[in-house]
Amino acid sequence: MSLAVADLCKRYGAVEAVAGVSFEAAPGAILGLLGPNGAGKSTTIGLIAGLLRPDRGSVRIAGRELGGDADPAKRALGLVPQELALIDELPARVNLEIFGALYGLAGRELRRRCDAALDAVSLADRAADPPRQYSGGMRRRLNLACALLHEPAVLLLDEPTVGVDPQSRHAIFATLAALRDAGHTLVYTTHYMEEVEKLCDRVVIIDHGRVLADDTVARLVAAAPGGETLTLDYEPAPDAAAVAALSMLPGVRSAALEAGRLVVSCTDIGAAAPRVLEQLAARDHHCRHLESRAPTLEDVFLSLTGRSLRDP
Amino acid sequence: MSAATAFRALVRKDVLTFVRDRRALIVSVLTPILIAAFFGYLFGERGGGERGRLPVAVVDEDGSPLSRAVGAALAADPMLEVEPSAAARARAAVGAGRLRASVRLPAGFGAAARRALVGGGPPAPVELLYDPSQSMVKAVVAGLLTEHVMQAAIGELASGAPEAVDATLADLRGNARLDPGLRADLVRVLEATRSLGTRPGAATAARGLAPPFALADVPVSAGPAYNSYAHAFAGMSVQFILFMGIDAGVAVLTQRQLGLWRRLRAAPVSRRTLLAARATATLLIALGILAAVYLVAGLVFGVRIAGSPAGFVAVCVAFAAFTAAAGLFVAALGRSVAATRGLATLVVLLLVMLGGAWVPSFVFPAWLQRATAFVPTRWAVDGLDAMTWRGLPAEAVLLPVAGLLAVALVLGALATLCFDWESDA
Ligand SMILES: Nc1ncnc2c1ncn2[C@@H]1O[C@H](COP(=O)(O)OP(=O)(O)O)[C@@H](O)[C@H]1O
Ligand SMILES: [Mg+2]
Question: Regarding the domain with residue range A3-222, which homologous superfamily does it belong to in the CATH classification?
């Protein structure tokens, strides 16, 4: 099932939490919703899930708008909230049974799906324990499992890996990839660009409640101004005049010293790299270390907003 | 040095956290003030008109001048609200808890009392029926009765009514047990009274005399013997089940803060279903607590459902529904967890006090006694009392049950209307 969001708006007093967000998510794909804290990701998810009433705009699932809280069509939606929504005192299995029952599951079918969900997040052996005895990563995995029971066609994931250990993150990613391959529609919000690069087929970048970009990661990166970046350690470090001279070289867009390291942003690394090395060698600077980095979503975000994603 | 710094920081953290929650701060200061003010007001010295009167029946089966004088004196007493009555009617009213006590002056009371006062005859029997759940009433009424009978008996003599004085003089001379000196004095006083028609001080004459009547006090309930545990169980069940209801409401606030409530709402269930489920859970828990508490009350403390079992169940269900609705109301209107819990606890304590579970309501001033007629906790306690030790028929709880259900409906409807669904989403 496809998900189409059109011109969603939600205001809290003076804060425009979501200001005209539109995008579509297709079946068999993971759509990344990327933005810094406070960008409006959770509000958007809340609007899609029907928890909030939009001031304007629409959400369509398979072409149809939801008709209120008790609309059975909500069964097509699964929500993994940013806050862990677990009943801490009750065993994991009971948690799952309650969430399954909320979506109309019962009896043997409910038990079967609980088993499947526990397996999917590798918690089958801890099913009898209450979540308060779990590690942070295990709770996150259970939080995900609770949304999988009713096999929703559209799965909304709000920062599902916050505070998670690498193994748990890996397990979550594997589960999500399997769901995508099975034809589910996934919307994945995060402020980690690495997660989007690794997991998502498409990315919608949002900030201050507005969509800044909406495309595949590859195309966004390719279109971003600024190509490869060279970072070099020199002994002694080049002075300001030498750095200024470097930025005149062919294939170089800009050069700068950052914390004693030379950072060269290239338009053509093939032309730039040998000339930079040659020129500095000729001035008796010894190169100790060199690395090159392909452009990332971080660069895309920087170019779109003038800020880093990691800034608070 | 650094230990002291750390210690200061820790203390500061806790104090600041507490002070930060303004509502909780106000509530924790206000609660002791309000409760202290309430009790101070209850037990303080105040004008007599303000104090509540004990509703009692006076059954005068004698009709003698003395019994009429006693009846009139009791009726004039500022502590009492006297209702002249017949024996059967008075007993039923005390049994139902409508009247606190009934004083019956049997036929021949007047003559017997006079003889007892001076002639050494046996004390005149007087029957005092009282509500055993408020047994302090017994002492109060017995005291007033003694005072008024003594005054009336001596007053009758002192008034100089010739036949009374003559009969009394005869009784007095025939009483060998009275101290001869005192007897001689009394005879002189009475003779002087007859000739002069003056009245000596009643107190002078009364000195050294025993009350001329014997009180037969009988605790009255329609059921079996009074079990003081029954009333205590009613009051404490009501109080602690209401506390549970508040905790249920506060738990909703906590769940909303944690995002669990939001997650539940993502499922295809209506808001009304969510609220109704919460209320139903509270109702079932309340019934479970009532069942467990009364099971122990019955098995260990001998509390019996002497009234209608169906009526008992009806009171329990109605009170559980009231508790559930109160919990929802708390969940709908509460903001900070600490403040909400504090404020709700204060309200429950006041309601329970007004319900008469802590102090008998006859110590309340009159206006407050009238006001408690509109307090749901009073209905619940009265209903449980009626169906347990009072042993009343089911009709007796129709009104309390209807009242509890009506308030539950109103609270539930208000909670549903006021519930702020967006704030946690
Ligand atoms: N219930 C609310 N009341 C007031 N402001 C809110 C509320 N929820 C979110 N906001 C504001 O809306 C903006 C977007 O928040 P959110 O959607 O949670 O961002 P994100 O999930 O991207 O971090 C923020 O500025 C936040 O402070
Ligand atoms: Mg968020």
Answer: P-loop containing nucleotide triphosphate hydrolases (3.40.50.300)
